[in-house]
Amino acid sequence: MPPSPAHTSPGPTAVHSSPLRRIGMALADAITLDLHSLALFRFLLGGILVADSLARACHARQTMSPDGMLPPDLVRLFVGHPWSWSLALWCDKTWWNLLLLAIEGVTGLLLAVGVATPVTTIAAWVVVVSVVRRTAPVTNAGDILLACLLFWSLFLPLGRACSWDSRRAVAPPPRQAVRGIATAALVLQVAAVYVSAGLAKCNDTWWSGDAVSYALSVHDHGTPLGDAIASHPSLARWLTWSTLVIELGGPPLLLIPSARVPLVAAFVTFHAAILATMDVCLFPWVGMAAWLALLPGGVWRRSGTASPPPSPFGVATTRLPSLTELAAAAALLVATTAFVHANSLWRDRPLGTIAKHAIQATFLEQDWSVFGDIRRQRQWIYARAELADGEVVDLLRGGRPLEPILPAGGYHSLHDQRLQKLAWELPKPAQRAFAAPLAATLVRQWDSKHPPDRRVVAFELRGARLMDEPEPDTLQDVLLAAWPPRSPSGRGGLDRLLRDAESAQPSRSGVEDHR
Predict the structure, then answer these.
(1) How far apart are CA 131 and CA 288, in angstroms?
(2) Of 113, 124, 375, 502, which residue is most buried, by most CB within 10 angstroms?
């Protein structure tokens, strides 16, 4: 007589299928995105595009014109790679770049409303990559992340809910979720940013708890609020370690469906804190938009609302076209290659030609080591201008009296986040070529707004930093550019040379003048 079902031993398949099924369901839930969350994501991306186009347009003649602080020929050399395409670098005329900024704003509006969403998303990605590469020396991690998110959006049904496209559809689909390679790529992209940033922070400065106090200084990237926090060592130390926990411990929690809502809330709060305490351009806004795209469908459901039809994994899915999946899979392979290369022991080894071309063509760079290397120093830049009436002012700070040491407000006093990014990077060898164009642009701007007796007769753009090594309070002051530029015969630089020789002696406090 056969044994009763209650005493039947499970076969080998039954023993092993349950854990595998649970793992599969967890992975499926992790990459399942609700269409309403994607609609919110689409709306926020559109708003960011509009704001970015307006902000860039205000300074377009300084940053995107042939005679501005970012000359196109120098930008082409800075970008370097032949596959780093940009429509903005196809034509050097100012009107062409202004047109691209206008297109960015229009695509942002259309994307937010959800009009012709697939075509609009393509146009938005192309114009963002073009503008970001045209202004590469002032590019922030937020610009690159925005381009990456727009790229993955090419494969997602962003306009299927809460959009003009969905209202015009003949038979709008019921509330449903979407799952596929593209959704997996978006989730992995969000996770990659923080894993990469967290790994880069695994160094002595972060482990000691000192990193945030330096990063939040107004002589680094801090706002007045950030600078106030930096002045409290215990609070700054707690924030340093909390940042490490969030960036390294948060992404793995994406695999736990029940943790998704508090996880999204935690990272949105994290980015809001960055926004309040640091000047880092678009990064906080783009980061918040990325996390809100991961909100689970339960956030949007109300009691009494019909649930979507069941599926093997408990959600309704919309299968993406096979060609789209293949393209998304190829792009995911490119992004994975870029991530492994940028965040592993092989980062110093050159990539293969095909991989390098693919990464540059798709703009899927995955080096997110933001604020990984925090130095124990205070850094600033100032623009010493001698006017015709004898007054000496700082052109970078609106003509206020010159403060050559720790100017009040630091980089935050520049009142332009992209100019702040260029000024902060300018002492580095790769960006040094843009010092002379920046100097000429600052002088030209000042002279155009002031009478002859207030015009600039001599100008120096200088970078300085206050360090604790090799001695406490060691000051390095470097001449980055001068105006008028020195001619081949040496004219135009004699007065500066005499002034430098007079002030080149180190002070008793360990000051070193490297001019």
Answers:
(1) 22
(2) 124
pLDDT at residue 173, as a whole number: 59
Predicted model pTM: 0.87
Q: With the CA atoms of 496, 499, 502 and 503 taken in that order, what torsion angle do they form, in degrees rounded to the nearest 10?
A: -100
Alpha carbons 280 and 295: distance in angstroms, whole number: 25
Count the helix, strand and coil residues of the chain and give each as a percent rounded to the nearest 5. 55, 10, 35
What's the angle, vertex CA 53, arms to CA 50 and CA 59, rounded to 5? 145
Contact 116, 135 (CB under 8 A): no
Q: Where are the domains of the chain?
A: 28-362, 377-503
For the cut 90, the answer to whether the pLDDT of residue 250 exceeds it is yes
Q: What is the mean pLDDT of residues 1-22?
A: 52
Overall average pLDDT of the 217-246 stretch: 93
The encoded tokens of residue 369 equal: 């080591």
- What pLDDT score was predicted for residue 279? 93
Per-residue confidence (pLDDT) for residue 15, from 0 to 100: 41
Query: What residue type is assigned to position 108 of the chain?
Result: G
Contacts of residue 308, defined as CB under 8 A and 6 or more positions apart, other chains included, come to 174, 175, 176, 177, 315, 316
| CB burial readout 120-143, b (16+ within 10 A) else e | bbbbbbbbbbbbbbbbbbbbbbbb
Query: How many other CB atoms are there within 10 angstroms of residue 206's CB atom?
Result: 22
Exposure string of 162-189, with b = 16+ CB inside 10 Å and e = fewer, is bbebbeeeeeeeebbbbbbbbbbbbbbb
Distance CA 69, CA 118 (A): 35
Tokens linked to 280: 């880092």
* DSSP states of 39-92: HHHHHHHHHHHHHHHHHHHHTHHHHSSTTSSS-HHHHHHHH--TT---GGGT--
The torsion angles phi and psi of 414, rounded to 5 degrees, stand at -75, -20
Distances from the Cα of 14 to the Cαs of 9, 17, 76, 415, in angstroms? 10, 5, 61, 65
Dihedral sign from CA coordinates of 262, 263, 266, 268: negative
99 CB-contact burial (10 Å; exposed 0-12 / middle 13-18 / buried 19+): middle
Q: Where are the alpha helices (DSSP H) in 343-382?
A: 353-362
Mean pLDDT of 149-154: 97
